[in-house]
Design goal:
6-stranded mixed β-sheet; alpha+beta; 8 strands
Amino acid sequence: MTEIAIFAAGCFWGVEQTFREAKGVSETEVGYTGGHADNPTYEQVCRKGTGHAEAVRVTYDPALTSYDDLLDIFWNCHNPTQVNRQGPDVGDQYRTAIFTVSDAQQDAAQASRDKLAASGRFDLPIATIIEPLGKWWKAEEYHQQYFEKRGGGACHIPG
């Protein structure tokens, strides 16, 4: 049986690629969530009028990887202290967020964020928002597995 996790960490192309390479992940899908408009398009989200974040829906096998493992990947694939930006991408659609699908995920995400904040790894406060998943909107097909289709890339993802 698989489970779902939803992460926003900047441009969804590189975040998706990072999770696609993770052990135990069977499927990824990029999309939009956390906003107020129905059926948003990429152009609408980029104009910053919908309130949505670019996010990645990760389907994983908990027998092969844990939610905590996915949280570690999330914390390491972006700068969680940046507000409404990652690398060269600026706007609320690039915010750092974890969208939870259960109380257990909410608790685990909060504990993980608290542990990272207390670790001293970052000089600035952790800006990551943790909230229950609202409506999920799948992004346009040309965004799905973007780098895989185009032969690589990484956006803002650290090497």
